[in-house]
Structures are given as structure tokens and as C-alpha cells.
Design brief:
heterodimer; A: 113 residues; mainly beta; 6-stranded mixed beta sheet; 5-stranded antiparallel beta sheet; 11 strands; 54% strand; globular; B: 111 residues; 7-stranded mixed beta sheet; 4-stranded antiparallel beta sheet
Chain lengths: 113, 111
């Protein structure tokens, strides 16, 4: 089955700095890679996703890159703000079938004002 | 648009008591449905998933069970709760080409 590794487990940055979270996956059949943000006590929410036919996707201060050859993808947050503080999860899955994403273990991002 | 409802939001139950958590999805048909547990910390542990009415797959052996009596209804149950069942329970739904949408979660404390 799929195995997703996520690093780092904790990331502390100063407001205005950039933050990068990296994930690797093992199953070459995976073709969909979402990222979720979970604020304390709340549900995880999809913030950005990328499909295997695209190498990069950007949405304002958030971007995701995918390297299918190396089987890794990353979340980039620029100009971080205190409200970016949360736990971020990456996931990998293959479309079709029961569609069960495999999640990374999460990264706790702390943005200091 | 699609919405997912999960209740209750919080629950305090004594050890040995039964449990029933309910999740319903609106605005879509034949969704894939999931129950996750998140213990203190961050990890999302998949408990059950369902691809159709009456079809339940279990990911881990445990004290819990799930049922899908209707297309858009998913229920998590236990006959006798254990202390270790405490956690944050999340229901989610998906379609093949879309990411997960999570419910608002139930924080269960077994005392």
C-alpha cells in the first residue's frame, strides 16, 4: 500500500518568513495530492491540491509543487501570518476504487508575530 | 452544494456505556464515507470506510463498529466504551475525483 512521509513534524517561523513542508510517497500509481489545514479543535480543511499532470499550482500565498519522478511534493507558504498557525496534513491517493487517501502524520506550523 | 453534518459536537460518556455518532451528507449521491479518529496529537487514524449502503470496511481491529443504513448516512457505534476510545472523531466524504470534506467532529471523552 501507499506510504506517505511528512517532514518536519514541527516548524516554527517568524511572521513574514516562508514555510515549506515536504512529503514523499511510495506508490507510483498515486495521482492526487491534497493538503489540509487543521486549526486547533477544528476539522481539517482542504487548502490546495495538485494532480499528477501538473508540476506546480499556486493560490495566493500558498503553492504546491510535485516531482513525480522523485515521488515527492511540497507545500510552500510565503509571507506567513499568525493565522497560518495550524497543523498541516499532506495526502496521496489514486483516483478510482474506494479512493482512500493516505495521510502524512502532520506538521505543526507555528508563526510567531 | 454538498454539506456534511456530524453530531454531537461533544460527548462525555462513562466506561461501559454505548455510543452512537451520526454523520449525514447532503447534496450528493453515492459518496464514499469515512470515520477517522484523532487522538491527542495530530495523526488521523482511519477506522472505517464505506463505498455503498451496507458496505463497511474496517481498517483496524477495535471496540467500534460502523453501519451505513442509507446512502448518505454513516453511523459509528460501540456497545461498551473503553477509556481508550476517547478522542476526536471525524466523519468525511469524498467522490472519486474530489478531496475529502470532513465533518465538524465529535470530541468524545470516556470517563
Amino acid at each position: 500500500g501507499e506510504n506517505v512521509e511528512q517532514h518536519p513534524s514541527t516548524l516554527s517561523v517568524q511572521e513574514g518568513d516562508s514555510a515549506v513542508i515536504k512529503c514523499t510517497y511510495s506508490d507510483s500509481a498515486s495521482n492526487y495530492f491534497p493538503w489540509y489545514k487543521q486549526e486547533l479543535g477544528k476539522r481539517p480543511q482542504l487548502i490546495i491540491d495538485i494532480r499528477s499532470n501538473v508540476g506546480e499550482k499556486k493560490d495566493q500565498r500558498i503553492a504546491v509543487t510535485l516531482n513525480k519522478t522523485a515521488k515527492h511534493f511540497s507545500l510552500h507558504i510565503t509571507e506567513t501570518q499568525p493565522e497560518d498557525s495550524a497543523v498541516y496534513f499532506c495526502a496521496a491517493s489514486a483516483s478510482g476504487g474506494s479512493y482512500i487517501p493516505t495521510f502524512g502524520r502532520g506538521t505543526s506550523l507555528i508563526v510567531h508575530p | 452544494s454538498q454539506t456534511i453534518h456530524q453530531w454531537p459536537a461533544t460527548l462525555v460518556q462513562p466506561v461501559g456505556s454505548p455510543l452512537s455518532l451520526e454523520c449525514t451528507v447532503e447534496g450528493t449521491s453515492n459518496p464514499n464515507l469515512y470515520w477517522y479518529r484523532q487522538a491527542a496529537g495530530r495523526g488521523l487514524q482511519l477506522l472505517f470506510y464505506s463505498v455503498g449502503i451496507g458496505q463497511i470496511s474496517s481498517e483496524v481491529p477495535q471496540n467500534l463498529s460502523a453501519s451505513r443504513p442509507q446512502d448518505r448516512q454513516f453511523i459509528l457505534s460501540s456497545k461498551k466504551l473503553l477509556l481508550s476510545d476517547s478522542g476526536f472523531y471525524l466523519c468525511a466524504w469524498s467522490r472519486q475525483t474530489l478531496g475529502y470534506t470532513f465533518g465538524s467532529g465529535t470530541r468524545l471523552t470516556v470517563v
